[in-house]
Design goal:
alpha/beta; 8-stranded mixed β-sheet; 20 helices
Length: 541
């Protein structure tokens, strides 16, 4: 390998070291003092509860670890959105696990907490996965109640989803290991089975202080809504346990008895590792934005490095083809980043979607739907080709075909943002708005309406024109200072951390985890046998 490869490798490893350093801070939740308070009450942390519950010999794919990252500074932050969650296995059954983190503001719900919990329920509903809730929450974070309480995608939607999932036959188990207050009290009671830990678990619409203020009654939390009260008097809860471990053991027993249900039937054979070394992904992805061959990336992700290209010599700025990932049959749509020539001897820029590549991708997506093959999108896209030549050739019309095919696709879609994800290219390559079952980003991802340089220069022109219209003199030095300021702010907003904080992506992953997250995503999708008929509506031709 050459010097550039080694440089790329070093930069990627440094990026991953930085990512892990940030994650370690997130894993501390509300901090060491808050964790010690949990210990004093014989309580495990949210992460410890999940580790105890899940099957250690099977994968756990965390979702939303960076949710809320560098947000809510005035409120002291909200690590991981105050919730630890992901997809794992309990007693051999793949499921969604959602655990309130009591060390973060007593498990109170911030706006991003609501968004994250709804995302986990969405995953459960789309993939028909059982859900286990590990409840320990003080309810809505009151200083921000207007941003989490009343709207359609706010706190109350959780309980609506509880009811919808029950109607869909999705198993829901709630283990109440701490407070469960006010509207949040409905979550465990709308689950199929409710387990409580004595001494710490409590469920009530109003706590002792509010009861005293409202009706003048003096009562302690345990008598008002503790485990004994709800298993012996109200009948609200189904089981009580002296310790959290005993409670979690019972959850394992309940999961162990779930019956097998019909699957979607996506094709899978014995897995084969890639022939080409996946470790080389670090060195192959350029640290400086230069061109690279996406085929080399694909061949280090797919089984046996075997990628069967569709229309290989047409629409070359998008690679389409069939492969297997961990044994699962997949269709891959990926942006080629080399400069290519078409049959007419015209140069085409890598990462740009042209008329022919949009046409090819649309057709391939329809083929995969016809054959019931899940789709994997590998994004490194700067957008659609611009200029009079492309406009006159109908680039918007051809782009609309691709967007139509992606939007109406009924097979599961999994998106990995490995580089740029700009503008309408983000949409056409199945960005968050196009309902991928799962969407992940490498640390090298950049998500924005356009590249930093173009955006900064455009914003600069607007600001300078506005200043001049007010009679202000703007020197070249002033323009440079303003440009640097705009560019810095814009580039912060394009990072994968900014995207993951707002759940535009489910998680930031090590490139070496790409095979695993795709495989686990398809395994999850295979639990849902219901697939709509493909209808694409009107195509512009």
């Amino acid at each position: 390998m050459d010097i550039q490869f080694n440089k790329n490798d070093d930069v990627m490893k440094l990026s991953l070291t930085e990512m892990r350093k940030r994650l370690q801070k997130i894993y501390e939740g509300g901090g060491k003092k808050s964790i010690e308070k949990q210990r004093e009450r014989n309580k495990l942390t949210a992460r410890e509860r999940i580790e105890y519950l899940r099957d250690a010999d099977k994968p756990f794919i965390e979702i939303g670890a960076f949710a809320g990252y560098e947000m809510y500074a005035e409120q002291g932050g909200c690590p991981a959105g105050g919730t630890v969650a992901g997809i794992g296995y309990v007693s051999g059954r793949q499921c969604v696990i959602v655990a309130n983190d009591q060390t973060v503001k007593a498990g109170a719900w911030f706006p991003i907490s609501g968004k994250k919990n709804l995302r986990l329920q969405e995953i459960a509903m789309e993939n028909r996965l059982p859900v286990i809730y590990l409840v320990d929450s003080a309810g809505v974070f009151l200083p921000l109640q207007d941003e989490i309480f009343p709207d359609k995608e706010h706190f109350g939607r959780i309980f609506r989803n509880n009811a919808r999932m029950s109607a869909m036959g999705i198993t829901q188990i709630a283990a109440v290991m701490g407070a469960c207050v006010a509207g949040g009290a409905y979550l465990p009671i709308m689950s199929d089975e409710t387990l409580m830990v004595e001494g710490n678990g409590s469920i009530f619409l109003a706590g002792p202080y509010l009861v005293k203020a409202a009706i003048g009654e003096d009562i302690d939390a345990e008598t008002l809504g503790g485990a004994a009260t709800h298993t012996e008097i109200s009948g609200i809860a189904d089981y009580k346990f002296k310790t959290e471990e005993e409670c979690l053991d019972e959850v394992k027993k309940l999961m162990n008895k779930l019956g097998e249900k019909k699957k979607a039937g996506f094709d899978r054979i014995a897995s084969k590792p890639p022939k080409k070394d996946p470790q080389q992904l670090y060195g192959l992805f350029p640290a400086d934005g230069k061109t690279y061959d996406m085929l080399e990336i694909i061949e280090r992700i797919v089984d046996d490095s075997d990628f069967d290209q569709f229309k290989q010599d047409y629409g070359k700025t998008i690679l389409c083809g069939y492969a297997r990932i961990d044994g699962w049959a997949v269709g891959i749509v990926a942006n080629q980043r080399t400069i290519v020539k078409n049959r007419k001897n015209e140069m085409q820029l890598g990462g740009v979607i042209y008329n022919d590549s949009a046409d090819k991708a649309a057709r391939f997506i329809l083929n995969c739907n016809q054959k019931k093959i899940p789709l994997v999108f590998l994004q490194d896209v700067t957008g659609f080709m611009v200029g009079s030549r492309s406009e006159h050739s109908g680039i918007i019309k051809d782009g609309a075909k691709m967007v139509n095919a992606v939007a109406n696709s009924v097979v599961p879609k999994i998106t990995i943002v490995i580089g740029n994800s700009y503008g309408a290219g983000n949409y056409a390559m199945c960005g968050k708005a196009y309902d991928p079952r799962f969407i992940y980003a490498w640390p090298t991802a950049k998500i924005a309406v356009m590249g930093g340089d173009q955006a900064a220069k455009t914003l600069l022109q607007i600001q300078v024109a506005a200043m001049k219209a007010k009679g202000k003199e703007v020197s070249a030095e002033d323009e440079k200072t303003l440009l640097d300021e705009i560019k810095g702010r814009y580039e912060t907003q394009t990072t994968p951390y900014y995207a993951a904080a707002r759940l535009w992506v489910d998680e930031i992953i090590d490139p070496l985890e790409t095979r695993r997250v795709i495989s686990e995503g398809i395994h999850a999708a295979d639990h849902n046998p219901d697939m709509d008929a493909l209808r694409v509506g009107v195509f512009q031709v």
